[in-house]
Amino acid sequence: MAHGHHTAHLDPPAKLRLPDGFGSIAIGMIVLGVLAFGYGLAADPIRAWKSYLIGFTFTALLGASGPFLVAALYLTRAGWGITLRRIPEAFGAWLLPAGALGLILAIGGAHTLYEWTDLELMASDPLLAAKAPFLNWPQMIISTIIAFGGIGGFAGWMAHNSRKQDKTGERSLTLLNARLASIFMIVFALGVSLIGINFIMSLHPHWFSTMWAVNIWSTMVQAGFALITIIALLLYRKRMLDGFLNENHIHDIGKLTFAATAFWAYIAFCQFLLMWYSNLPEEFIFWHARYIDGWGTYTLILPLFKFVIPFALMLPRAVKRGKGLLPICVWILAASVFEIYWWVAPAPAAHEHHFHPTLPWMELAVVIGFFGGFMLVVGKTLAKHNLVPLKDPRLNEALHHHQ
Amino acid sequence: MSDHATSAHQRDSLHHGAEHTTTFSSQGEGAVTGYMALFNHPDDILHAAEKVRDQSFQEWDVLTPFPVHGMDDAMGIGRSWMPWVTLMLAGAGLTTALTLQFGTMAFDWPIIISGKPFAAWPSFMPISFELTVLFAGVGTALIMLLTAGLPKLKPRVLDARLSSDRFAIWISAEDDRFDLVKTRAFLETLHPLEVREIRGEE
Questions:
Q1: Looking at the complex, does the CB of residue B125 fall below 8 Å from at least one CB of chain A?
Q2: Inside any domain, residue A14
């Protein structure tokens, strides 16, 4: 353990050198996604835009999960996470590109995906007419700009202060970031709710759920913490953070991933149970669409993939400390893509109400494309700055971190 | 934190200086049941515990007023078997809940409730979850207390300051490696404030 160590005795870690071919692989992934999407637009626009929506949602949630953890660390004055904070900080860099990609969807794909963009239908349906003051196209555009601008802006501001502290060492920057984090949390909660309601929930414009924002948040933290764990594990195993990151840090982020897995099950089942029990059409419509047309099996598999398997595998302490943790976290990421697919694929589109499961090659290719973009932006950001906030006033606490 | 590390470092160098003396005293009556070495800082007790561990004593313990981080490793304590107890109890709770609900609702006394099937498993989940947690939580706490020998109505108080600002290493005379002369000499090499000989049973 680092007992006798002082900060001054440790050499700062070298800047991250991305592995050879990282950029080419990421660009290859983007090209694959663009090709699949382009082909889809010509052959089957609904499917193409649904694939786009899956990839967009997956990476946007990942992007927002990082700044959320950063803000939570500042607000709780946590010391343990300082040495791995640069990873979630880098995630925030994806938010502005994600916002642009969301605008492309809102402008180009909304009329294909969302039946509420049909103004005649909205006027003729009393329920939709009542929702029209919110559920309309200008609102979607403005909300997307505000949500991504707000979350991304505050995330960028906090990251900027954190990096500035590397040079100046001003303690006041930590206090400033704690204040920004408290505002960020409100912006984040409202922004994520808006994104979740506009892009996913409104696929079923008649649907009511007061749990949706929490559901989308729980999916976000589970996937986001899993990815942070993966990157932290890779840096730890490549010995890039020697002296800064040890098994106890992995244990803590592993425990968070484990907790998020249990939390997702709690929230997702909560939402299902109450809707199943009360059996009201405006609530059950979401579940009915995922019960008919061959989606029932997918609905039953979902809790197995997202909760039972990762939860059981992550129970032992040794796993949360890194033994076999990497494949489980990759599994959680894949299961999160599966969940978003399950949100989007069975949902009605603007002029069509029934979709059957197919081999999801196009969906997968587009998600890979989006993830390639995410990798490129986040990887470059991570490589550009110091891997550890070297002059954070709580750094020493993280260096001496015990379980 | 850096202030803290520096002061610990300075204290260490003080302890290795020539001025340091360890006092010796005796407490209680009867045969020697063990030695207690007293320290006044958690870092000191942590380092001392590492050295006792490396001497492979078996019948020894560390007494601190609050949990000291890293003490498990310093004492060489392995993993507890308690998680297995929790897992078993969780399984027992889940089984009890499912048996109770499916048994009564689907077999023993089937009643139609709000148009749901008799074996309406989603509505059984909250109770299954609660009983799993209840069995695991309460059961673990109880078994932990029992195996720790608690509650103990009249514990022997070796030193009242062990619950405020003193830290002690206790080596029992029952340890195979215990030796009146050598163990005392060994404890003195740890530079405690005091080595105390404890006599008599509780």
A1: yes
A2: no
